[in-house]
């Protein structure tokens, strides 16, 4: 059993590649280091994606996220780097990564980065009628 951080991402075949569906993953314990002070930064990562042929394997994702714990990196850089690595691993139709960092110096930071396959068209949203008043 691997109990060390790793930048290796694993995938598995999408069981429903003909259907657009959304996978949502929340990583509540992301941490890295401030590149200026070396102090720890903490964030909640919210990942949403529409898979194409591959899905991300969660244990490998956990070890990948853990690999940033001792790395000094700016919030903007780490969010975009993680998104780029995840897109490279599974080539999704769409992916959005939201990194919601804890307060530092009285300032909260949220970074949102997205990827969209240029050949993918999102389906039209379905709007259901409101239920009748009771």
Overall description:
The protein is built from two helices and six strands, in the order ββββααββ. With 134 residues, it is of the alpha+beta class. It has helices at residues 58-66, 75-90, and strands at 11-13, 23-33, 40-50, 54-56, 94-104, 107-116. It has a single domain, classed as GTP Cyclohydrolase I, domain 2 (2-Layer Sandwich), CATH 3.30.1130.10. Strand 5 and strand 6 form a beta hairpin. The strands form two sheets. Strands 2-3-5-6 form a four-stranded antiparallel beta sheet, covered by helices on one side.
Short description:
With 134 residues, this protein is an alpha+beta fold. It is 19% helix and 37% strand.
How many domains, as an integer?
1
Shape summary: globular
The SS-based structural class is alpha+beta
**Rg result:** 17 Å
- Please tally the β strands and state the result: 6
Task: Tell me the span between the first and last alpha carbons.
Answer: 55 Å
Report the order of strands and helices. Answer: EEEEHHEE
Determine the fraction of residues in helical runs and give it as a percent range: 10-25%
CATH top level? Alpha Beta
Strand content: 35-45%
Quaternary structure annotation: single chain
